Amino acid sequence: MALTYEEVISKYEPSLGLEVHVELNTQTKMFCGCATVFGAAPNTQTCPVCLGMPGALPVVNEKAIESTIRIGLALNCSITPKSRFARKNYFYPDMPKNFQISQYDEPICTNGYLDVDVETDEGMQTFRIEIERVHMEEDTGKSLHVGGATGRIHGAEYSLLDYNRAGIPLVEIVTKVVSGTGKYAPEVAKAYVKELRDILRSLGVSDVKMEQGSLRCDANVSLAPIGSGKLGTRSETKNVNSLRSVERAVRGEMIRHARLLDKGERVIQETRHFQEDSGGTRSGRSKEQAEDYRYFPEPDLTPVAPAAEWVEQLRSELPEKPSLRRARLQSQWQVPDKEMAALVNAGAVDLVEETVALGADPTRARGWWLGEISRLANEAEIELTSISITPKDVARIIELISAGELTDKLARQVVAAVIAGEGDPDSVIATQGIKVVSDESALIAAIEKAIAAQPETAEKVRNGHVPAAGALIGAVMKETKGQADAARVRELLLGLLGQG
Amino acid sequence: MAANSRISREEVARIAALARITLGEDELTHLASQIDGILDAVAVVQEAAGADVPPMSHPIEVNNVSRPDVIVPSLSPEAALSGAPASEDSRFRVPQILGEEA
Amino acid sequence: MSDLIKKGAAELATLIASGEVSSREVTQAHLDQIERVDGAINAFLYVDAEGALAQAELADKARGNGSSSALNGVPLALKDVLTQKGIPTTCGSKILEGWRPPYDATVVTKLKNAGVVILGKTNMDEFAMGSSTENSAYGPTRNPWDVQRIPGGSGGGSAAALAAFEAPLAIGTDTGGSIRQPAAVTGTVGVKPTYGGVSRYGLVAFSSSLDQAGPCARTVLDTALLHQIIAGHDPKDATSINAPVPDVVAAAKSADVKGMKIGVVQELSGDGYEKGVADRFAESLAILESLGAEIVEVSCPNFKFALGAYYLIAPSEASSNLARFDAMRYGLRVGDDGARSAEEVMSMTREVGFGSEVKRRIILGTYALSAGYYDAFYGSAQKVRTLITQDFSQAYQKVDVLVSPTTPTVAFKIGEKSDDPIAMYLNDVATIPVNLAGVASMSLPAGLSEGLPVGFQIIAPAMKDDRLYRVGGALERELHKQWNGPLTNQAPNLVGQ
Ligand SMILES: [Mg+2]
Ligand SMILES: [Zn+2]
Fold first, then answer.
1. Which residues of C462-483 are buried (b: 16+ CB within 10 A; e: fewer)?
2. Rounded to two decimals, what is the model's pTM?
3. Which CATH code is given to the segment(s) A440-496?
4. ipTM of this complex
């Protein structure tokens, strides 16, 4: 018999640990001057340093240090007066030097926290997630597995390596053990990653695109019987590539652990991989022995000792916290809690803010982003933030509606065309010949045609049976290919039939 | 091997695997005794310094050496791949990789 | 044989600058000498005759355009541990066979910019691990003073090339003595600059916190001229010192030790130092004293731990630095039959591609860094480093430079110590403390012991490299008077003479 989630949480208390890797959006790599453009042709952004060629040496990117300190400050961390790089030694073909330059016992930021809000049965509740450390390291290359099942490592005949990603600056953000979340563990995990993403975005330090891998989350989950006061054995789930997956992965692991524990079996401490299709996890290679990374101070690099004044300056220049900003915007826009939460969940706050800044009415801007555009994003299975229509486009469309140059229906048509890549609203309107038919004589001609075609219906209307007008209006709209303003058609029709 | 040896043959085999070096039986035996001898000789460092002596990882102490975030031209993919034992489609071709799903 | 090859770099540079002889002629004379003697010496792993002659022509043109370089057109032998674009770089290892780097080391860039002509790449102990050049995958280099003997190591190729007149200048690298010990046993001059004084960019790392490239030549002034060219800050090396290079050429020319305090390190003498070595050292001290220097005894009690610390730190860093040689991106690949995994191919390639000394050190270093042993081994060694540095700074409160014999013995016979690593390591007992502390040091010839060269070591504080040249220049001037020229003139049977 399989336990349900409700049964799991009635018996066990979950603990979480979240490790987030963020690719910084610096112009160049962590230790060399190669560009970091996503999606460039293979091995076009490589040099002796990031290919780990004999004799090449790393030099730290100062922007990466600045970005990491800003992240640490935004997460309420202490900035280490003197931190150091270390080498993490292990062999893997996607890592050119067979060691990763990382930070070990002397990370640049430590002991912070992040408060996240989660909707609970008792309303909005704040959970404090404590941050253990924030440190700098470098990304690995990418391997493409050829032969066997496509793209899968198992059964591949050989692999092809592209080192464009190797050496891109990574910041690793590690939480302390998160406990006390009870049944909300999956939601808390998701809210944490989301809040973190919003902060990183507000800092402008990363593209934070989970689907492109610029923000990656590993979720550690363990269960212990309620009241035991102990920590259970944890599993570490990698490959969690969306916010929704964070929640699913945590929930899935909680259920998997509980089922094992219920049968009296042991949870194995291991790395597991999230399966996007099933929502489950699969065991990685089980390790015969604990990893021995042989960390030691990186002799090719000097310590990082940021001046206290510089750190204070960076602190004073931090942008408004996303949570405070949300509260401010909510009151400016006069949005109820639920709707604000919907905007936040859809990742639409920035989009609406920008649209409003371009002159659009907040209510209308919200309506478009959360309505039609969200619907199209859902259909295409992409994030709202990745859809190819800009706040500027939306503001223009709203402007055209207000001016009576677009009906709601036409506007939807324009939105779809802009998203389909047919150009900005004005060029879509021009090429598709979209316009509201406002030429009254043409409308009257169409109405007269409809009356002539349906004399009996017209008679009913004349006799005061106004609802019958719908059929006539429909015919007129059909005749004008939807480009007429339905309200005006109704007005004119009723006038002609003596009901105005 | 001496009874009070610092490192066993099995341990040398484990370390060799960690260092990704295949060792034949004879080589392993020979190496284990040599390394044991060297460890014996270098273990003198343990007597030298107490807890109050700070470790030194760098001969000349300098802090904060960094570079500006400015793009420098990369190698051409041809140059990058020029030494590769095998390549395909501008990528390094390597034998099948065991281990974790990437 | 052209008499051009007997001339030093300074003299050749003057002749080239005045137009009396062309760089092309000088370069050709050295290429001819290599052709004539290198079969017996094996100093070179690769001779780039075509490239060298092309560089020589450029240097001749630069002369016409008024080149201001002090060594324009002078040939040089480059240790095969530095990258030169398009030229095979093996580090004496099979694992890099056939690799042609796509970039120049900063030292190479500086040499090229100065119009120095690079003749080729010289032999060395594999990845600079050794004191005899017997650990080269491409056969040992032989000492021109006696081809049955080692030329020192790891830079035996560079030192032997100088002693056999195959080149007037050479570049070496020194991690625990690899410039100074070969200089000592071949009767040449070699300098390990202050750590960070010369860029390590393009120097294939053995032990990053100890490695340092430096100049080698047959005279102190030639060494200084080369030092001046290769030294200086490099933004590509984060450990490179961002400060002006001391004027070593002026120091070599002044060669004035009057009033200097010279400290004799008590711990670097006595048992294990052969009589001829001790005698030449004592005579050199007497000369320096006669020139007005004050000789004082100093004690560096922690030097006795230096060898142990070195043979933990260097292998540890090496185990990490050499991890990149894995058959994936460059160099040798063994066992790739389509069925084996990347891991298996890595392990097989590293078995075949590395020689036994390299494997020994990688395993030693991997062990010293591994979980549970780090504190006892690597951690303790790092503390010893602190103690040795303190010994140096205390000594430098009393004296301007320290001195000792460079090596306890003269060159030993090839094969004599090849399977006794500890005996081999003892060769470096006097040179290693220098690397651990990052200070500057020179070895120059002090005379002969039973017909073989003896080296005199000078050690100066960090960034005071000029003091090496003042003391070395003074001692050399007096010794040259006795010998009627460089020590190499005292070698009737020298190969290449
Ligand atoms: Mg990490
Ligand atoms: Zn690069």
1. bbbbbbbbbbbbbbbebbbeeb
2. 0.89
3. 1.10.10
4. 0.96
